[in-house]
Amino acid sequence: MSAGTEPQAVTPWHARPPARALVVVLTIAGLAYALTFFRGLQEIVAPVFLALNFYIVVYPLQRWLTRHRVPGALGACVSVVLVLVMLFGFFGLTAWAIAELVMLIPSYGNQLVATYHSLMSMLGELGVTSNVLEAQLRQFNVRSIFDAVSPLLTNVSLGAGLLTTVIMAVFFVAMDSMGMSSRMGMLKDAKPALAQSLGGFASGVRRYWVVATIFGLIVAILDVVALAIIDVPLVWVWGVLAFLTNYIPNIGFVIGLIPPALLALVDSGWQSAVWVIVAYSVLNFVIQAIIQPKFTGESVGVTPLVSFLSLLFWVWVLGWLGALLALPATLLLKALLVDADPKARWVNILIASDPRTAHTPVH
């Protein structure tokens, strides 16, 4: 090298085009394998992550107790009790609503058959093949509905196993939580960006669950009042369903609407069913689409399209609990893969509810 000639920077091997393509391929393959692995363990991963979410909600109380010189073990016990109350309340309400629905279905046998026949006749008038109608009418009876739905609604062993896993996970999370403050302090010194992104994840998830719970209660109470005015049976069951489905992004409203609308159709005719649809649509649109997002703010963290896609993705990965955990799980991935890496934060321009987070500096 001649004098005065500056040495040229050598490009690292992993940044050169062939090696970079190999890194991308291996990364995609690794992610695909990890997803397959988590799908196989969804009965463990989903309940544990649910327990972690519940504990994140109550952890500020434990931290407050510790600051006021309450022993760490006692503060953890208080948090565990609160989480167990929430868990038993959640699963207890679900079990009660299912039991009421299972007991109601047989009493509407004749009405269900009559409604089904009238609907099939209406389809026949619209041009549906008569042979298909006759075959369906011969096969239909209320017992076939009950036999199909009952195993899904009364799978006690599945619910008991899920609840047991969640409770065990809560106790182990509580044991780790007593040293969480010091661990996060050490992590902040070693990896400030990661510590900040995990703190943001915890705050966002906590705000998401609290706001979803408050507005779920508001929606449920208003739905109960509307159903009582329309005179639909089992108004409290449908109120519980509206409350629970409020945690499911995007399609929870539809899931909570269909059963009371069908019961109104069977019990009182199509006019009542239309009024149920109108009441639910107005109440849920005003509260969930206009008012709630103003309070949720950045806790959701992603755009509506990403929220919907995450729902489909996490149901595929984690099973039916993925519907409840879709947004928290997406926020966790976003915190680990995007927010923790300053070079990857540009992705927030495309997926974040607030694109300005793409330029948020690390403190």
UniProtKB/TrEMBL annotation:
Keywords, comma-separated and alphabetical: Membrane, Transmembrane, Transmembrane helix
UniProt key word Zinc-finger: no
Compartment(s) where it occurs, according to its Swiss-Prot or TrEMBL record: Membrane
One term under GO cellular component: membrane
Transmembrane domains' residue ranges: 21-38, 44-61, 73-99, 152-174, 208-230, 236-266, 273-291, 311-333
Membrane topology term: Multi-pass membrane protein
Pfam families named in the record: AI-2E_transport
Family (UniProt): Belongs to the autoinducer-2 exporter (AI-2E) (TC 2.A.86) family.
PANTHER family from the UniProt entry: AI-2 TRANSPORT PROTEIN TQSA (PTHR21716:SF64), TRANSMEMBRANE PROTEIN (PTHR21716)
Protein's name according to its UniProt entry: Permease
Organism: Brevibacterium casei S18
